[in-house]
Structures are given as C-alpha cells and as structure tokens.
Design a protein that fits this description.
homodimer, 122 residues, mainly beta, Ubiquitin-like (UB roll), four-stranded mixed beta sheet, two-stranded antiparallel sheet, 11% helix, globular, disordered C terminus
Chain lengths: 122, 122
C-alpha cells in the first residue's frame, strides 16, 4: 500500500517493474549526480520526508540515500516529465553522490575526448 | 551490426531490450532537457555524427533529434556512469527539447510546491 497522492500516481507511466526513472541533480550547481529508480512508495517517501529515497533493483529494497554512507540527498524540488516516466529530483547532496567516492556517478568515464585545442564544456 | 567502439561496448550494461538510459543536459546552463534511450548503434551515431540520436521505444526506430522538428541537439560531451547503464549527454539544444514546445520535458509538472515563504530553487 502506497501513500502516494492519487493525483500524482495517476500521471505516472511505470515500467513493467512498476518504476519510474529519477534523474538526480544538485539544485544549485546543476551537476547531474546519478540516475535512480522509484516506485510509488519511494516517490511518496521522497516527497513527504524530504530525503531522496529509491527502490534498489539489485537489492530489491527501499533505500534512503545516505542511510549507511551519510551522503544524504535533501530534496529541493521534484518534477515529472511530459510523458510521466521520468522524475527530475533536485537535491542538496551531502558529500559524494557516487558509491565510488566521486562527487557524481558520471565523473570517471568520459567517452568523448575533446578535440585538440577545444576544451570540453564539462 | 553496430559500429560502436568495442572498448565502450564492453562497458555498457544494457536493459533486456539492449538499451541504456541517456540523461540529456544543456551544456552551458545545466538544464536537464529530457531522458532518452540508446542502443549501441544510437550511441555510435551520437559519438560519430555529433548529433544526439536515440532509439525510439514507441516507434521502434532510430531518431536523430531534430530531423523533423529542427530542434537538433549538438553533442558537446558524453559520459558513462559508474555502473555502465546510464549516459550523460551534454548538448547544445536548438529550440525546444520537448515535443510540447517547452524548453525541457520537465517544465510543466512540478510535484513539490515550495513551502510558504520559501522560494524554490528551480
């Protein structure tokens, strides 16, 4: 049983597993920190507790970011996209977002080397 | 047959449908524009043509953003996340990213009204 607002629940377009993608962004710098997944209950907890909470597909359990690491994500704003299958969660990230210790999950693997003499915009 | 660099292909962790998620961000403002999906071929085309190209799950075809709308996404940088299932594609978006005409797919549906007196950080 989820406690998610029925008006919001009606707008979600879920995967076969009942999930929507959640793009997580640092609210002030605009850094994209990670991609997580939420079901209705995780979204409800995110909205009501003010801490970003996900459904872990690998562990099959709810996961309030920072419970073990201390790297809490305080929710500033949540938006739903035009077709209802992706959330944009703007947060204030405490410490590193990535389990590797990197600030974001996208720091380590750049697929596009900048052409010679053209600094990347990253 | 995909032309994707085998070193990159080896690092991808795909869905059962052979896809990875692509978070698309305006390179200079940091706006998150949309979430798309890419298979190996779409990623290869994105990297080699410099135009963001997706696999359309609804139409089951490749889709070079802007082909019909003119709203092209010029690729500035592509990154892969720590577990290989999500790309961050930084682009220069021509016009609107969203098919509704909005600048981003997240403009229209805010789930978190800011508490009284606390302006949102959006």
């Amino acid at each position: 049983m989820t406690t998610l607002d029925p008006d919001i629940a009606a707008r979600l377009k879920r995967t076969d597993d009942g999930l929507v993608a959640a793009v997580v962004q640092q609210h002030d710098t605009g850094e994209v920190l990670m991609l997580g997944w939420m079901d209705d209950e995780a979204l409800s907890r995110t909205l009501t507790t003010g801490r970003a909470t996900y459904w872990s597909r690998s562990r099959q359990e709810y996961w309030a970011k920072g419970d073990t690491s201390g790297h809490v994500q305080w929710v500033k704003e949540v938006r739903l996209d035009c077709d209802g299958d992706t959330l944009l969660v703007k947060v204030d990230q405490v410490g590193a977002a990535c389990h590797t210790g990197d600030r974001t999950c996208f720091d380590a693997d750049l697929l596009t080397p900048a052409p010679d003499g053209q600094p990347s915009d990253g």
